[in-house]
């Protein structure tokens, strides 16, 4: 029995020599995932839509890791093909994929615009499927890989005025299980992270609404909104050898928000 335990070490959490694609890592939560990977030893490839790349470049290079970028629209299938090709050209392999990029759009349910529905479903769900499907082919040839999808508290609940985002994030859980079933035999694990309410620059103004802020905070058993660093350990775990027998599951990083009524 002791010999079995002796194989384990903290090296199981290392990502040295690994290459991670993190979509939309030039901002927001995606940046936290990418920096966490760099700190654990991985090189980073960032498909991005907006122009700003200086901050994530500096953060990754400060860890002594390499980073490359490709700008485009994830709802364009030809761009998805270029992501895979470019990452292989730059780094020669793809070990980790984090499907982080996404968008939401709020409007009255009675006259919710069709264009909002199409935009959210295409980016938040369809693009995740197509990119994962393309990357999985590379991982199958390598004989290993980690796919990490990003869900939400709305993967398990619902909110008003954002129907496609809620549907897409529910779909992410189903998609995660589909890929886990299809790819598990190839030593590729697919899991999801479902962040809850995190204090970010994006929601800084919203948090100034004390009624809303208190309503959310009072429902979180830990009594606080999450910080970026609360995500980083979990994403490294799911990308590392330490999680090789975890497949098809979602970890909620929400302080217990979705456990309460």
Automatic annotation (TrEMBL):
PROSITE patterns: ADH_SHORT. Coiled coil: none annotated. The keyword Oxidoreductase applies. SUPFAM superfamilies: NAD(P)-binding Rossmann-fold domains. It comes from the Bacteria. The keyword Transport does not apply. Keywords: Oxidoreductase. PANTHER family: 2-DEHYDRO-3-DEOXY-D-GLUCONATE 5-DEHYDROGENASE, SHORT-CHAIN DEHYDROGENASES/REDUCTASES FAMILY MEMBER. Belongs to the short-chain dehydrogenases/reductases (SDR) family. This is SDR family oxidoreductase. It comes from Aequitasia blattaphilus.
């Amino acid at each position: 029995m002791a010999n079995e335990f002796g194989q384990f070490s903290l090296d199981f959490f290392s990502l040295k020599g690994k290459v991670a694609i993190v979509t939309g890592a030039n901002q927001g939560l995606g940046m936290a995932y990418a920096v966490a990977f760099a700190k654990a030893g991985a090189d980073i490839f960032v498909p991005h839509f907006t122009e700003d790349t200086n901050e994530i470049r500096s953060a990754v290079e400060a860890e002594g890791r390499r980073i490359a970028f490709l700008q485009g629209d994830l709802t364009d299938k030809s761009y998805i093909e270029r992501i895979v090709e470019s990452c292989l050209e730059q780094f020669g392999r793809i070990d980790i994929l984090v499907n982080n990029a996404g968008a939401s759009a709020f409007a009255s349910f009675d006259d919710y615009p069709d264009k909002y529905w199409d935009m959210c479903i295409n980016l938040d769900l369809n693009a995740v499927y197509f990119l994962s499907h393309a990357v999985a082919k590379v991982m199958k040839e390598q004989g290993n890989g980690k796919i990490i999808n990003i869900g939400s508290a709305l993967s398990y609940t619902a909110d008003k005025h954002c129907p496609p985002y809620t549907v897409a994030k529910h779909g992410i859980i189903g998609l995660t299980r589909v890929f886990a079933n299809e790819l598990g035999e190839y030593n590729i694990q697919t899991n999801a992270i479902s962040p809850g309410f995190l204090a970010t620059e994006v929601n800084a103004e919203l948090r100034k609404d004390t009624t809303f802020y208190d309503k959310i905070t009072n429902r979180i058993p830990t009594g606080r909104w999450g910080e970026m660093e609360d995500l980083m350990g979990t994403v490294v775990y799911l990308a590392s050898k330490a999680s090789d027998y975890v497949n098809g599951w979602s970890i909620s990083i929400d302080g217990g928000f979705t456990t309460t009524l």
